[in-house]
Structure formats: C-alpha cells, structure tokens
Amino acid sequence: MKSVGSSPRRGGGLGRVTGHQQYLADIKLPDVLQVKLVTLPVARAKINSIDVTEAEALPGVAFVMTSADLPQPMPRFGPQFQDRPVLADGETKYHGEAVAAVAAETKEIAEEAVRLVKVHYDELHGGVYSVAEALADNPLLVQDPKLRGDSPLAHTNIIDEKHFGWGDIDSQESDLIVEDTFQFPMVTHFAIEPHGFMAAPDGDGIEIWSTIQHPYLLQKIMAKLLDMPLAMVRVHAPDPGGGFGGKQIPKLEPLIAYMALRAQRPVRLILTLDETFQTVRRSSAEVRVRLGFTENGVFTFQDIETNFLVGAYVDIADRVVSKSSYSAAGPYSVPAVKIIGRTIVSHTTPSTAFRGFGIPQISWARESVIDEAALRLGVDRLDIRLRNLARYREEFIPLEEADGDWEQTVRTAAKRIGWNDPLPPNRGRGIACGMKSGPTTGLSYSTVRLLYDGSAMVYAGTSDMGQGARTVFAQIASDELGVPLENIAVVMGDTAVVPYDQQTSASRSSVLMGTAVQRACQDIQGKVLTMATELYGINEDAVKTVGGRLLLPDREVTLTEVMQEALAPLGGEVIGNGEMRKEKDPNHPLGGTAAFFEFNCTASEVEVDMETGHVTLIKHVTVGDVGRSLNPKQVTAQDDGAAIQGLGHTLMEHYIFDDAGRVRNIGAIDYRILTSMDLPLEMHSESIENADGPGPYGIKGVSEGSLLVTAPAVGAAVREATGKVIRDLPLTPQRVWEALQEDENGS
After folding, report:
1. At CA 550, angle to CA 545 and CA 554, rounded to 5?
2. How confident is the model at residue 498 (pLDDT cuts 50, 70, 90)?
3. CA 603 to CA 432: how far, in whole Å?
4. CA dist 359 to 282, 504, 582, 711, Å?
5. CA distances, 464 to each of 14, 135, 281, 721 (Å)
6. Is 144 left (phi over 0), alpha (psi -120 to 50) or beta?
7. Domains and CATH numbers, the chain
C-alpha cells in the first residue's frame, strides 16, 4: 500500500497532544544557571548607569551581565543588517528591551535579583510609533546614522526603498481609477510554546539549545559573533511548539551564549508569554493602492505603495518587504505596474517573518480596492477577478509564470460558498484571491540509512514545528524504500548529527527537503541495484527499480532482501545522500524565481449585528492550489490553522500602545485571539490537485495560503452586510459599530 497520498498518524503527534513531547523547556541540564532579564517600564530611555551591587550580593546569584561586560564595541547581529545589540546599547529603543540579565541558581532568586538591579536612566519622551512620525520632515531617528554605513538613507528612518514594476502606468487609458489607503496592525505570533534558550561551554566551543526554526542560520551567526569555527558551535533545536516565522531568526541566543562562556556553566532562559510579546511580532503596514480599469473591469494599471513599520531593529523584515512588494499586484495579468516598498524602523518591538511573509498586509488593501472598483463598474466581484486572473504558464510578473490552473481554484471556492445564492438581511459575502512566492533559493541535504533489518533512518535539518515534516519525510522514504512507515525513524534538530538545511520557511520543506529525501532514497536504490547485478550475475539493464522493489528477469525482490543477502554474514547498511539546490539568480530582483506559488482563494459569509457591530462568521471557505497532497489530513489541518490565524488579525488581534510607546495589551487576557467560540459556524478547506508542482510526486508547498486573503474576503462580506467601508484592521465590534454610526457624509 502506498504511503504517499494517505493520512497516517502524525509522527510525534501523540506526544504533542498528551504532553509527553520534550520541548526545550523540558530539557534539564545539570548545574544550570537560570536567567531573567532586566527591562525598564518605558519604551525609550537613556541609560546612565547600572548598579548591580545589591543584586550580586543576593545569595544564589552568580552574576549580573550588563553591556559593560560584553566585548566593545557592542556586538550586533542580524540576518541582513547587523544592527541588533546583544543588550541595549546606551539607550532602550522599545518597551521591553533588555538592559541587563541576571544569572542565578534558581528562577525565583533570579527574579528577586532583577528587582534589586538599579538602573539609573532618563526617560526619552517622544518617539516614532507610526508611519507618519517615521516619515515626517526632520524626524526623530530610531537608529544612529553611524551604524547605517554609507547608506544614502542613513539620516532617515527608511532602511531601504524598493522599486519594482513594468510597463508605463501613466500611458494607460482607464475608464475608472480607484485609490485608497489601508492599515494593517501589529500582531504577535502567539505560538503556544514560548521562546527558550540555553547554552553551555563545550571544550573550545559552545553548545546552544534554542526554539529556533533555522538551526544552521543560528550556528552561522553565533560562529561569527564568537569568532569560532562552525564546527565549534553546536546547535540543538528540539521540535518547536509552533513557530509561524517568529522563531526563524536569533533573538536572545547571543546573550545566553556570552553568559554561558562567562559562567563556564550552562545557562537557561525561558521567556514568559508577556516577554515573547515584547521580543518579536509581525510588521504592521500602511498600504496605498491606486488601480485603473476598463469599463468591463479589466486592469489597465496598478500603482502600489507599501510602508512597513518594522520596529527598532530590522531582523528579516527588509526581506519581508522586498519579497511581498515584488508580487504586490497579486495573481493578475496587468499591463503596467508600479510598486514602491519601504522598510521603516520605529520605536516598537522588532518585527520578523510571519506566516504569509507580508502578503496579507498588501492583499488586504489591493483586494478591497478591487471590490470597490467592481461595485462602481457594476461588475460582479467574482467576475472581475476571473477576467484578470493570470492563466497557466503566463508570465504575469517579469521572469515569473503562473504555475497552476488558478481559475479552477477560484471557481471551486465560489461554488462552495454559494456565491449566487440569495442572502438574508444583515448578511454579506466576500471573495478574494492571493498568492505568495515560495522560496527563491534553497539548499537542503538529506542522509538516509537503510538498516540491515529493513528499517530506515532519515536525517534532515528541517524543523518540525507542527507542520508534520517528520511524517511527510517518512512517507516519502516508505514508498521509495519499501519500508513500512512504522519502521522509519526521522532524526532532526542537531547540527552535529543532521546534514545542512538552509532554513524551515516559505513552505519549502516538503518540496526542497522532501526532494532531498527522495533523492537519498534513490541513491540507495542505485546502490542496491548494483548489489543485485553482482549478486545474481545479471546485466544492470535487465533490472528495474520500482519504489522499494527490484524487478529481476525471473522474479521480484525487495531492496531489503537484496541488501541482506549481499551484506551477509557481516551485516551493515546502505547509506544514501540526496541534495536539492535552487541556485541564486543575480539577474532576478529577489535573487531567484519562485520555486512555486501558494495560490489561494478565500470566500466568507458573515452576519453583522447592527446594534453591536459584532461579526458572526457563518461560513468560511478556503481553496488552495497544492499540486498534490502527500498527506491530505495534514494539508487540511494546515489550511484550517492558517485560516483561523488569518481570522485573528482580521477580527480582533492588534497591539495597543500608550503615548509613551508602552504595549498595553500584553498577554493572553488583554490580547485576544480566536477561541472555539469565535470560529466560523461552517468551515471548509479544499485542495486542487493537478500534480504540477516541482516537489516529489508533483507537490507544491502549503501552510500559508489560507491566511493570505482572509481579511479582504471577510472585509468585503462585512461591507456587503453593512454598506460600510472599513479600511483599518481588525474589524472589532467597536470599529464596525462606529462605522455603522456614520452618516452618508462620513461625519
């Protein structure tokens, strides 16, 4: 029985739901020091001095680390710009930035010592908390221009400004031009497992434990910071309990590493949920969209400006801006496009990657303006999208082709939502289309061992944070080697054990690492085939390999049978290595074409309470173009999860700041996410499978598509139900109610 295409029990799933899985916080190192961070109750402050005398006198405190204890100048790090200090350097730039760290024998002692650290500071009033403040004339600068090198934008709050597009928008003749500006909020990733970090000296090197999604990136950054060879930096990355992009990039690992080397003992820091809120978030955005149409609703041009407010340090946010802005025109065929994308720093929590990688921010604006155009032109909102949708293999962005029958996806979503069915009062429907580029470059290695007893081990540097990578890799190996799924072990999470994987992001794992696993298994097939020709004295051309079997001229044998006979009596194993590489293209604005696109159509039906503004989700449909589902249940689970996460930023999630830049709704009580009481009454996820993807068996990546256009689909439904246009997310009852109170003049 084939494993691929079925939905076996998820590897590690039982441990996750029963609490037996060992997350990083469950790992106990002997003689470990517990770390707690010292922060200030303000967003911006000039640090005059830090007195650690009383704290270090407390029994059980090993030491308090401040910036004075670190190498000078202050070590800084980041995946694109090395701008993030290990500890606040002279001043804090956002609420919650660490100014010192206590290492003690117990967490309780460390917490008490934190209260004894005396930080003498002057609060710095004012700050950059909005796009308008960041781009004002003679603005307050978030970053020191001296740290910006020779950048022509060094004396601004703009880290970079990207210009993309094609054609001449000014020469296009349009019957209708629609322009509007939309706001997308800051939100947190809210992974159930908080961020955690441990480090311990290891001879001339160091061992680091982290909830990181990219262990090899962490290894690279730490080796550079500590001036160590890569071989001396070992990263342990246990399966994270959720990531969503928030655990891609190093955050506090450098601090913990320096503390471990100073102590010459293991040290450990597990963040609280509150601390996680103040450590990482998704970028907010202000997006201006100006679209031109013929009277029949065909695009003549798109003019889009994106301003992403990324926080105090850049992290990976500049890549978020460039990649999402490049495809800001969406999955449509447009003759002329002009795009400007800005990466803007602010005195707020640093942002990073988040499921969707900037596309939800832009799609919210673009799809909403398309709806407005359809209403003004008297064109059905579904039809206007179908008329403009890129066709299969059409070059709809320079150097990029549509890689699926996207019309099939859209029509399926419209059918499932009952697009043309009559609606009762106070109800509305919306539909929206979006796509996200998969990885533009990539390098994944896998090693697979076919053991003497017919079991197998798969080694992969991917992180399984709940997306089910362990299961999918085992399914591929099962079919390729003919080994029962229950006899396959998948090893991950240790740079000293598993081969290199560039990263776990961009929905790449099943495509890139899955291909590497498949090729490693095919390497084993080739080696066993050679064994068979030598063992049975037959010509290689007379043997065919079909998955885990060899078809000989006179009979059929399994790979395991041939291996056992050839290796007896000494025993042994057959080892295969596989690689999947997508090279960088220096001629492409993003460094390479998309390996695939995640295309999704989302449709939603809502009912609005006209007295309170409360939005009830009656029916929510999401349809994705997946190529093929290796594990249908896992695909559905990813689609459902992404859709629910998208409904969070659509209906309720957002950071609230006071005038001094302090986050006021930290934690699970004051920051609302969807519960079971908020879910759609009906929820449907469907996959379009045409086996036209680049991965094993024709797959494409999944897991991000279903939140790309959640907001515009729901927003359009709310508009149809109420007649009101709301441009700022989330669509809270208060915001909807306030819109309902406005008269026709908007007063």
Report:
1. 125
2. very high
3. 7
4. 12, 18, 23, 11
5. 14, 40, 21, 41
6. beta
7. 281-439+588-741 (3.30.365.10), 442-582 (3.30.365.10)
**Closest C-alpha to 508, from 463, 566, 554:** 463
Token code pair at residue 40: 């200030």
**pLDDT reported for residue 13:** 85
Tokens of 293: 């149409």
Distance CA 576, CA 523 (A): 5
Give the 3-state secondary structure of residue 119: strand
Q: What does the alpha-carbon distance between residue 434 and residue 413 come to, in Å, rounded to a whole number?
A: 13
What are φ and ψ of residue 338, in 5° steps? -130, 125
Q: What is the pLDDT of residue 745?
A: 45
Mean pLDDT for the stretch of residues 236-241 = 96
**Percent residues over pLDDT 70 in the chain:** 99
Task: Please provide the DSSP assignment of 303-339 as one string.
Answer: EEEEEEEEESS-TTHHHHHHHHHHTTT-SB--S-EEE
One-letter identity of residue 585: D
Type of residue found at 613 = G
CB atoms within 10 A of CB 51: 14
- The residues facing 573 across adjacent strands are 451
- Calpha distance 136→134 (Å, rounded): 6
Closest among 630, 447, 475, 484 to 558, alpha carbons compared? 484
Q: Tell me the sheet residues that pair with 262.
A: none
* pLDDT at 14 > cutoff 90: no
Give the number of other Cβ atoms within 10 Å of residue 398's Cβ.
13
pTM: 0.96
CB atoms within 10 A of CB 584: 12
Residues 676-705, mean pLDDT to the nearest whole number: 97
Residue 114: CB atoms within 10 A of its CB come to 18
Residue 229: strand, helix, or coil: coil
Q: Are 36 and 50 in contact (CB under 8 A)?
A: no
What pLDDT, in 10s, does the model give residues 594-651? 999 999 999 999 999 999 999 999 999 999 999 999 999 999 999 999 999 999 999 9
